[in-house]
Write a structure and sequence with these properties.
Length: about 90
């Protein structure tokens, strides 16, 4: 793909999304991510030449009292920050 095509797919919108990708505000600029229903997570961080893949199954423990599966967003963020050596 041409650099222009890649740039089009990764151009963030006002909603923190790109074409099929999320653009997490907490990640380094230019990063792009995607999550799956079971909590799997992939993030590309071009500025670091890095990709992180977190395989998980949030369905294992079932749903909470709110009838939802656990939100793994904070875990995903902590994994990326640990890999990058970021301390909050």
């Amino acid at each position: 793909m041409s650099p222009e095509t890649v740039a089009t797919f990764l151009k963030p919108t006002e909603y923190g999304q790109a074409l099929g990708w999320q653009t997490p505000s907490w990640a380094p600029p230019g990063s792009f991510a995607h999550t799956g229903f079971t909590g799997t997570f992939v993030i590309g961080i071009p500025s670091e030449g890095l990709a992180v893949i977190l395989l998980s199954n949030r369905q294992h423990f079932g749903v909470g009292s709110d009838t939802r599966y656990p939100d793994l967003g904070e875990l995903q963020r902590q994994v990326v920050e640990t890999v990058l050596g970021v301390h909050r």
